[in-house]
Write a structure and sequence with these properties.
two-stranded antiparallel ribbon, 217 residues, elongated, 2 domains, 8 helices
Amino acid sequence: MNTKTEILQSATWHTSIETLPLRTFIDILIDKKLELLVITGQPTPEDLATAWQEIREDFADSMGGYEQTIYLQKLKEMSVLELKLTRINVLLDLLKELYYEPFAIHLNAELSTSLTLDPDKPKEYRRNLTILENRSRAYKIDINLLRIELETFQANVNEDHGPAEDFSRGYFQKILITLSDHAKFPITDLVTVFEFTERMKRWNSYCEQTQKSISNG
């Protein structure tokens, strides 16, 4: 047996999303370096190309339309925050013109605060309104961040709502953040591609069940 044959026979490489780390998958996807599939030895370029094609197909099948689910969930979150901010701004504008206790109570409830708005103390009244207005800016920041996330997801979801071809590392990081928020612990790109797609499925199932509960409620 010659050396070349021995090298080929001893070579091993990733052929499945079940063993391939997500970090490696992302690096290959973006940097186009199929050699990152290699575990040991020196497999042929043809072997690596075949393995990568199968991995990409498995990934696409597993992901399905879950990117679209995330997009719709983020869109819903942003709509809720925008509506909340609108209510806050209306209350602030009204209270700047005329004190009305139910409005003051409602404003404190919206902002999770307990500031006293006493119209008999004009200076303190204006100061506390300013504090409440500044607090509301946190919602503006959250809305802007969600808007950026939505733009990223929209750019990476094709017309069929399946995985797009033009991915970025930021795209995956945003999904990992969403999955981490749902799981209540950090999920990083050290997981396998299989675990990543499986968590996407479970998150999607959770969103569907939540939506059904809201619709039936």
